[in-house]
Amino acid sequence: MTDRTLKSLARLEVIPRRTIYLFLFVACAIPFLVPIRLPLHIWKETRSAFDVTSKCPPGKVIAISSSWVSGSQGENWPQYEAVVAHCMLSNIPFVVFAVDADPMAPQMAEIINQREAKRYGKVYGRDWVNLGLTRGAPLTMGAIGRSVKTVFQTDFQHTSTEDYAKLPLMKQVRTVRDFYCLWAVDYQPDLNWVVFLDPTGNLPVVFACAGIVSPTFYSYVSSGQLKGLMVGTRGAAEYEELLRDTYGKRFDDRDLRGNKLIVPLAFGHLVIIAFIVAGNIGMAARRRQKAAEDNR
Amino acid sequence: MSGYWAANWPIWISAFCVLAVYTYLYKDNALYRVMMQIFIGVNLGYQAVIQWRDVLYPQWWLPMLDGFDALFGGKGSPWGVLWLLVGVLGAMFYLQLSRKYAPFSKIAIGITIGIGAGLTFKSQFGQNLPQLLDSFKPLAPSVVRMQPKTALRLAGSDFAPLVDGSLAVFVTGRQAVAQEVMGGVELWRTTLPSPASGSPVVSGQFIDVPAGTNVLELDPSSGAIVANRRSTATEPPAVALEAQAVYRQPQYIHGVDLIAKGNLIRGVALRNGVAEGVRKNDELWNRAFAEPVVCLQSFDGVAMVVGRHRSELWELPVPQAKLTFGDYFDNWVFVLTLVGVMSYFFFSFKRRGPIPVAAATFGRWMLMIGFGAFFGNTVMTRMSFLLDRLMFLIDDWLRPLWHALFR
After folding, report:
1. Which one, out of B293, B300, B357, B378, has a CA that is 20 to 30 A from the CA of A104?
2. Integer Cα distance of B314 and B295 in angstroms
3. How close does chain A come to B179, measured CA to CA in Å?
C-alpha cells in the first residue's frame, strides 16, 4: 500500500463528529420518507411476555405500572402502545398506575389509552382505569398488593375508586389476587415489583424496559422471576408482529411506533457499524504508516 | 393557511425547542442553555404542583383534616390526627438548615435509613436468592428423572375413598377411618357391624357406607353410626375400582395424565408443550407403589394413591423442559463464564499456575463481550430517542407544513 493511500485511510480514524451526526440524521430520515419493511426475528423473551398476557382468564385484570415519561418515550411509548393494544384486542381489562415516577407519567399513558380505546370501542372505567401516581416504593408496592383502593383512593381524574357507577371495573379490583399479571413499563423497571407486590411470588411479572438496561434483566428471565421481557423498540416491534399474526386485520397498527421505528433504527445501526469499521481501518492504517516511518 | 397555523402553532413551538436543543450537536451555545434552563424550571414547577395535588393533598392532608374533624365530633376516625406526626417528622429534615437544631434532623434521617436498610435486606434476598439457585444449571442430561415425593401416609381402603373438602373416609373390611386429607390427622375410626361393600358417599348430612344389602349412615363429625337401613333400588351398586385393570386420572393442572396399572403409576404428557420440548404421550416419570393400586385421585399438584393396606399422598413433580444440545451448550458457557469472572475478581491470593491464570483471562474476555452487549444496547436506546424526535419533526411538523403549502 502506498504512503498516499495509507495517509488517506489514516484520516478515517478521526472523522469529525458533525459528519457522523449528519450521516446518522440522513440515514435515519430516509425510512420515514420512503416506506421500507425488513424481516423481524421474534425473540424468546418477547414471545413469553406475549403468551403470559394472552392467557389472562375472564374475571382477572392486568396491572400495568407505567412510570415512563417523555425522557424515554422513544422506547417506552411503542412498548406501552403494544401492551394496551393487546389488552384491548383480547378484551382484557387493565388498571394502570405510576409509582415513584415523573408526574407526567399518568398523562402520557392516558394519551395512548384514549387513542387505542377509540379504535377498539373501549370505555374508560369499564375496560380500563388510570389510577394515577403514587410515591413510596417499595413499601407502596406491598400496599398495592394488599389493598389497591387504600393506596389509590381516587383515579387520576379524582373520581373515587369506590364510585362503581363511574368506575365499574374497580368492583373487581381489590388486592393482588385480582391481578393476573403485572406489566412494568419504564426506562428501568423496579425489580422490587418481583419481591414486594406479591410476596408469595405467584403473580407473573413482565418488564418492558429500555434497551440500555436490558442486559441486567435477562438473568431474571432465566431464573423465572420475570415471565417475559420486552426490550426497547425492538421488543415493541416484535410484539406488534405477534399481534398482527394473532389478530390479523382486527389489529389496527396505524401510527403504532414499534414497526415504524425499527427500520430507521436498523439504518442508524448500519451507519454506526460502518463508522466503527472505518475508524478501525483508520487506526490500522495509521499504525502501518507509523511503522513504515520508523523503519525508514 | 390560517387554519393550519391555528392548529399547528404548538407543534412549531415544540419543533423550535427540539431544534434548539439539537444545536448542541454543532457546538455549545446560548440558545441550547436557555432551552435547558426553561425545561428544568418548567419540570420542577410542574413536579411541585403534582406532588401536592396527587400525593400529599389526598394521601396526607385530607386524612389529617378528617382526623381533626372526627376529634371535634365529626364523622370518620380520629386516628387520622396521627398524620400530623408524619408531617412533623418530614419537616425535621429541614432542621439540617439550622446549626442549633440540626441534631434533631438525625432522628428523621435515622428512621429513613432504618426503614431503607430493612427493605433493602428483604429486597436483596428476594431478588438474589433465586438468582443464586438458578446458577446451578444442568450440564449433561440427567439419568434420574424428577419423581413424585411422598408427602403423607394415609389409611388403606378396599374401595375408592370419599374425599369431601378436607375430609377423606377410607373403608377396609369392618373399619371406616376418617382423616384430614392434607394433614393426615385421624379424625375418627368406626367399626362397622358388617364389612363394607362399596365406596362411601355423601348423602345429605351423613356419610353412607354400603355394607352388603344394607347402607350404614355415619355422622361425618364423629363417625357414629346413625342408622342402619336396607339399601334402596335407586342407590347405585357399589363397584370396586380394583376390578379396573388401568385407572386413568387426568391431572390437568400440569397437563399430565396419571396412569396406574398394577402397582406402577406413570405420569404421561396429556398434550404437546406441557413443558418445553415435551410431546404428547411422553412419559415424564414412573413410580411403583407398595401394593396394587385400588384407586388414584389427583388435586392441584398432588395425587392420592390408594391401596388396600395403605394410601399415600404424593407431591407430583412439575413437568421439566427437555433440554436440547443448544441448551446444554448455553449452560456450559454460563457456568464457565461465572467461574471465570469470579476468579478474575478474586483478589485474595496471587494467581499462580496455568489454570487460575487461564480462568481469570477467560473471565476478562467474557466481561469484555458482556460490555460489548451493553454498548450495543446503549446505542439502540440512544438511537431510539433520536428517532422519536426525528419522527416528530418529519411526521408532525414538516409533513403537515408540506401539505399546507403545496396541496
Report:
1. B378
2. 13
3. 28
Confidence of residue B249 (pLDDT cuts 50, 70, 90): low
- Using the Cβ of A138 and the Cβ atoms of chain B, whether some distance falls under 8 Å is answered with yes
Contacts for A32-36 with beta carbons within 8 Å, 24 or more apart?
Answer: A32/A264, A32/B390, A32/B391, A32/B394, A32/B395, A33/B394, A36/A263
- Which pLDDT band holds residue B234 (cuts at 50, 70, 90)? low
| B130 vs A contacts (CB less than 8 Å) | 223-225
**Annotated domain spans of chain B:** 2-83, 98-133, 168-239, 246-315, 327-401
Mean pLDDT of chain B: 87
Question: Any idea which fold B168-239 has?
Answer: Thrombin, subunit H (2.40.10)
The length of chain A is 296
Please tell us whether the domain made up of A44-255 is placed in CATH 3.40.50.
Answer: yes
Tell me the domain boundaries of chain A: 3-36+264-295, 44-255
Residue B322: per-residue pLDDT? 84
pLDDT interval class at B331 (50, 70, 90): very high
Pairing, β B214-218 against β A94-99: unpaired
Q: How far is A133 from chain B (nearest CA, A)?
A: 7
**B378 in contact with A at a CB cutoff of 8 Å?**
yes
Write out the DSSP string of A22-67.
Answer: HHHHHHHHHHHHS------PPPHHHHHHHHHHHTPPTT-EEEEEE-
Report yes or no: A20 at the B interface, CB cutoff 8 Å. Answer: no
CATH code: domain B246-315 is: 2.40.10
Predicted pLDDT at A232: 95
Binning pLDDT at 50, 70 and 90, where does residue B250 land? low
Q: Fold match between B168-239 and B246-315?
A: yes
Report residues of chain A scoring pLDDT below 50.
none
